[in-house]
Write a structure and sequence with these properties.
303 residues; binds S-adenosylmethionine; 8-stranded mixed sheet; Rossmann fold; two-stranded antiparallel ribbon; 10 helices; alpha/beta; globular
Amino acid sequence: MNNDIDTNVSNGTDNELENGNRDGNNNGIDPRNTLNDLSSKEWVAETVSVWIQKGLGANHEDAKIERQHPAPFSFTDVSRLIRFFTKSGQTVLDPFVGVGSTLKACAIENRQGIGFELNPRYVELTKQRLEKEVRTLFSTTNSQDIQTGDARLLVKNLEENSVDFVVTSPPYWNILHKQDHKAKQERIANNLDTQYSDDELDLGNIQEYDKFLEELSAILGDCSRPLKPKKYMAIIVSDFRDKSKYVMFHADLARSLQMYGLELKGISILYQRHKRIFPYGYPFAYVPNIHHQYILILQNIKK
Ligand SMILES: C[S@@+](CC[C@H](N)C(=O)[O-])C[C@H]1O[C@@H](n2cnc3c(N)ncnc32)[C@H](O)[C@@H]1O
């Protein structure tokens, strides 16, 4: 097996093969670039399929609010995605916005964010976060739009073809109910949330995996109506274990979204180098420390 085998070949239908590199004027930004505000050099770095997750560090002053939420993603990783998949001033939707990492990134990157969140406490924390972590630095929050409620309903209010990019990290089924290791015990000891809510509308409270997958796919599928044609959706997910079984959630979700016209274009690995490791399985069986997430990149192929 050749370790250097080139897996970057396609059937020649993608523009990247044809376009080559024609920038040179306009600060290195090709005038035909309708996707983002990046030069080819900046562009290429973002297409490498392994990223190292960059957080602020648990002790950073600006990590205090996000810590209240059991599963925030890092706003710096989301900023990278936003810079790649939109131009300045464009509109970004996160249907599961949690404590507002996407909206913080949008405010800093001068994009218009729309976020949905079921738990009113996280909506309140998002508002505090934008006020404290963005306004003090940039004297603006660009009036980010956070809406409280069920994403199933809120997405229906959005106008067709009004969104340029969807980026989100949904609940990973009900794994917050299952995880039972030291990290969870520490959150309990510090009086921090260990699950999103008790609300039956919360996708994290659905008992059956197939039903969860169906409902999540329907919500993300509905996001393709406000998402403009040919625009992208990035979904950050992780695989997980269900008792002794390994569940390929990222693959199940990507497959399930095909029927909504969301076509998988690539997957990036988000390496979580900072995550603690535990001696799962020792000394009897192989049990992985799952140290990465997947960024599924899908394109809205509707006409
Ligand atoms: C993985 S978290 C998102 C975290 C977010 N990326 C952040 O950085 O804070 C998933 C979020 O989805 C929310 N959620 C679950 N079911 C929902 C629903 N039906 N409608 C809207 N939000 C929902 C949960 O309350 C939780 O905050």
